[in-house]
Amino acid sequence: MPIKHSYSTHVVWTGDRGSGTSSYRAYDRAHEIRSPGKPPLFCSADPKFLGDRGRYNPEELLVAALSSCHMLWYLHLAADNGIVVVDYRDDASGTMLETRDGGGRFSEVTLRPVVTAIGPVDAALAESLHHRAHDLCYIASSVAFPVGCEPKLVLAGETLTASPQADGA
To answer: Using one digit for the tens of pLDDT, what is the confidence trace for 29-86?
Structure first.
């Protein structure tokens, strides 16, 4: 039987300018995401939908959730496999397609992790851990669009011990 985990957040709309939603342009899209014991996330809509570009939007948070989940699994797998990661960065991006009725859906997200490791590193193993991290990521397993991964391995002072083609992955 699977172990069940539950998560909750409290979302509060903070964008009432005094007349509520009396018209589409009468209100701000500002809102906060709150969880007990954590600082709030200040959010809005994408600026294309009258949002505040200085706040996170739900689309960015979805891309960030995929990137973060992948990273956490990768770090776990690296530790289990003797790969010492000293830096991990990801310039992830996603594409959303807007539909004629104003709705939309994501068509893809691409993760571009740059992993810096020390010591001799088996590049093929390091790359394979990205595939395993993808398979284990709860968020990637929950979305209905492809999540690609274009990893790069950087060594801090050592050389790779595996095939050269894995280095350019």
So the answer is: 999 999 999 999 999 999 999 999 999 999 999 999 999 999 999 999 999 999 999 9
Q: Which domains does the chain have, with CATH numbers?
A: 10-49 (no CATH), 58-167 (3.30.300.20)
CB 113 within 8 A of CB 71: yes
SS3 94: strand
* Distance between CA atoms of residues 20 and 23, nearest Å: 8
pTM for the whole structure: 0.87
End-to-end Cα, the chain, rounded Å: 37
Beta bridge partners of 153: 115
Contact residues for 96 (Cβ-Cβ < 8 A; gap 6+): 59, 104, 105, 106, 107
